[in-house]
Amino acid sequence: MSVYEALAGVYDELTGDVAYERRADYLERLFQKSRLPVRTVLDLACGTGNMTAVLTERGYELIGVDDSPDMLAVAREKAAGWRGEPPVFLHQSMPKLDLYGTVEAAVCCLDSLNYLTSPRDVQKTFERLALFIAPGGILVFDINSALYLRNLDGQVFLDETEDVYCVWRAEFEKRSRVCTYWMDIFTRRADGAWARSVEEHRQRAYEVEELRAWLLDAGFTHIRTYGDCRMSAPKEGEQRIYFSAIRGK
Asked: What is the reported pLDDT for 152?
């Protein structure tokens, strides 16, 4: 089964505690660092469109891009009920991003960049973003820190609701710096029986300095890092690290 094929249908149910409104507040604070007024926003790896929805209803024009057709199908279905300019959804991988024009801001939320397990794919993604963010525009993304992913090794987690039961275990491979999550997803059927699906997700640990170097190489400047939803630098042991960067001239 492909990544997110089973998870797409239950993703929103399992991520009800993400606090998208609060994270959107934070993104808007970072948008103020843009050299351009932000109106058009790329939501890269938009998933089921939860952040796309919040920003759309705040008056931005959104382009949602994701590599999972299953996640995009959920986003498109939900978008019919959103207020604001209807977003454009595109089925594309991050390293092959191809837009019709430029945006003033791009966001990539909830450690989606870690899913690129090839360093070259991260570099290609930054290069493609530099093509489609207007000079002076801003890029904002967050990652799971390398320390956090290393510490997941051997951990087992449980997420459950009344109709969904998800057990996942993690294994970190030091040489490749890849953390693999094996997820068993049980969903309650209409007849009361439970259906089981299995997915494998992989994230690579990236260090702040290597990401900073790749951003510079791609043409970004004024690169800053922050703690989770804070305007200050990451603390030691931080789980989630935010980046902002300005597209150079």
From this structure: 97
